[in-house]
Specification:
single chain, alpha/beta, Rossmann fold, SIR2/SIRT2 'Small Domain', 2 domains, 7-stranded parallel β-sheet, 13 helices, 10 strands, binds ligand BJW
Amino acid sequence: MPRCLLPRSLLLFHPLLAFLRVFFRGAPWHSVFTSLYDPAVNDLSLAASRLRQARSVVAITGAGISAESGLRTFRGSTAASAAELPRDMQALWAEFDPQTLATPEAFEADPEKVSRWYDWRRLGCLAAEPNPGHLALAAIERSVTASGGSFTLLTQNVDRLHHRAGSTNVVELHGNIIQWRCTSTHRVIDLPPEPFATFPPPSPFAKGALLRPHVVWFGEMLPPQALEAAAAAVQSCDLFLSIGTSAVVYPAAGFLHAARQNNAFTIEINAEPTAASRIVDICIQGSSGDILPSLANAAFSPPSS
Ligand code: BJW
């Protein structure tokens, strides 16, 4: 149910205000409507209609889209509901301290511990399979591009599951965990699907150097080409989808705000409310593995006769 900031007596006008809010998106006084009402909630048919009409689509994904492939998210779920999950499915940062694992300082202080942890996660990603959410996003990309539109997938995920699901225009904002790179030469290496023999793994490229995961840690810059490609796509998009992300890690979380500034229509698909939920045009709550296939079908499947 939409959470309404107006007195109950004005609820009668809700459909009208909701229509005006969506219709006049981009007008200078548009914010009047957004400030009066929360986003349309769970309106899959409006989302499908906007997706069908869109010419330039950008989607950003986070760990939530891979949760149904068995990969753990970083955050998410209230403390109460998280406690009900088995330990091995709890959010990573509920069990591990990111300061001692996901920063360059942590790697410098304890490369063995950090590389063991990342190798454990690398093997988990290799063992995982794309789920219906990944497959539906790849199908949406094909439908949008087949009709002459553009589709760019910005992912914060390091698991490579979008590539394996068939998505082609993928921008990896936080790198990937499947490849590792030399701490001295920065050369990137593809690894066999077996654990390293020694920790920390020595680099084959430079004596005394190590291999580190080819991911972006806190305090590190995102890859410049990824940032440029993302900014260019967001600049010209008319529809922006935010999927399975808590939308708290910057600069990735800033792309939704940039898309809104450029008057793109914005849709969130997430299991629970996030930092983005109050500012998008449509907020669909649920699992991306259920919602994305429904959205793709509703937007692009011909009606059955
Ligand atoms: C489902 C679901 C289902 C579950 N269906 N949904 C501006 C303001 C404030 C801070 C900063 C700022 N600019 C920079 C910063 C600092 C920092 C930052 O943002 N910190 C915030 C946490 C406060 N950013 C950085 O340091 C970045 N670098 C940078 O800015 O460089 C410039 C700079 C350098 C030096 C000085 C100053 C500036 C780098 C960020 C790198 C993030 N790295 C990680 C680890 C990657 C490697 C690894 O895998 O270990 O990336 S952290 C982690 O968070 C990972 C993720 O990509 C990222 C985002 O998480 P994501 O994907 O959103 O996952 P969750 O778990 O948070 O959310 C999942 C959601 O899914 C939940 O809501 C669930 O409910 C939902 N869900 N099941 C749908 N089935």
